[in-house]
Amino acid sequence: AALIITSCAESKTKGPNSTGRGSEIIVVCSKPVWNGPIGDTIKAVLMQSMAGLPEAEPQYTLINIPEKDFSRFLQTHRNVLIVDIKPEFAKSKVETLKNVWSQPQRVIKMKASSDTAMINVFAKNSEAILELFAQNERARFSAQNALSRNLVLEKTLLDTFGIKMVVSNDF
User: What is the DSSP code (8-state) at residue 88?
Assistant: First the structure.
């Protein structure tokens, strides 16, 4: 299947603050898709164990929401993956969007004509999808840390080592 990637289209409206816990992704697709090979493929990639932890812990928590239940309330979630399979799609397509319904937000829309085409397009783009969600999580974490900064430690790092970085008061 041919692949067209539309990258980083950004909404003009700012919208409300995004919702959802850290490292959580809403996956919008039907229950049969979620419970079948496509869901298994998505889970295998997005729920890989985090490297460097003493005990296995998945990178992301996935929440499946059928398209009919993907309400305005859920659309403000920080990370959204939309899986759309319809025979009339001529080409498989991955579209990445920022701040569609809220901010900061990453929405990835995947379209394919069949289950096999969807599995192929997801597998081909899985590393990029992981990186886009990781970027959004890092932005969330940085914004959260910036709310309560340890200015004394930041100055010490800059004066002593020449390192400029935001450090949370919790450190």
Answer: T
Backbone angles phi, psi at 59, to 5 degrees: -65, -40
CA distance 46 to 17: 24
Instruction: Give the burial class of 15: count Cβ atoms within 10 A of its Cβ; 0-12 exposed, 13-18 middle, 19 or more buried.
Output: middle
Q: What 3-state class would DSSP assign to 140?
A: helix
Instruction: Quote the DSSP letter at residue 11.
Output: -
Q: What's the CA gap between 74 and 57, in Å, rounded? A: 25
Query: Residue 115 corresponds to which tokens in the numbers above?
Result: 């289950």
pLDDT in tens, 71-105: 999 999 999 999 999 999 999 999 999 999 998 89
| Amino acid (1-letter code) at residue 126 | S
